[in-house]
Structure formats: structure tokens, C-alpha cells
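Quick question, first post here. What does this chain look like in 3D?
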Amino acid sequence: MSNETNTRERLAEIDPTLLLADGYDDCIIGIGAQWSKEGLVVYDRKKVIDKLMRDGMNYGEAEEFFEFNIQGAWLGEKTPMFVTRLEDIE
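> Answer (accepted):
Ran it through. C-alpha cells below.
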């Protein structure tokens, strides 16, 4: 079983209504929650941008693509969250 399948299966067991960003399962860092809101999948922003760069984009292209097409995609209340870690802030 691949890591991607394993991640998706584990998340489906926890909550089958969770939404995922296709192709970025290796960038998932957990499930986030806030008072009175349902949980949602949380991704590491830097890992997603790094993956886009490995796929051939330079940093500027990857950041723009990420912000518009991935982070900027609204899928409803369970839209995934993208976290910027403190150590990644310049």
C-alpha cells in the first residue's frame, strides 16, 4: 500500500467528509479544529511549494500557483488549511 493510499484511508476512517488537495498527501501535517467548527485537513505550505518546485516551477511561479490555485480554492467549510510554520517566515 502506498503512503498516499495509507494517508487517505487513515483520514477517511477519522472523518470521511474531509477534503484533500489532490497530489499533496505527503504535505499533510494533521487535522485542525476550532471551537464550534468541524475538523479539516492541514497542510504545510512550504512542503506544497517545494513539491511544485520539484515539478519544475521556480519559487515565484510555485508561490503564485499555490496562492491562486491551491490555497485560493474554496471548496466549502471543509476546505483544507495551509499553515506557514514560524521557522519558514522570513
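The longest strand covers residues 28-32.
The chain has one domain: 3-85.
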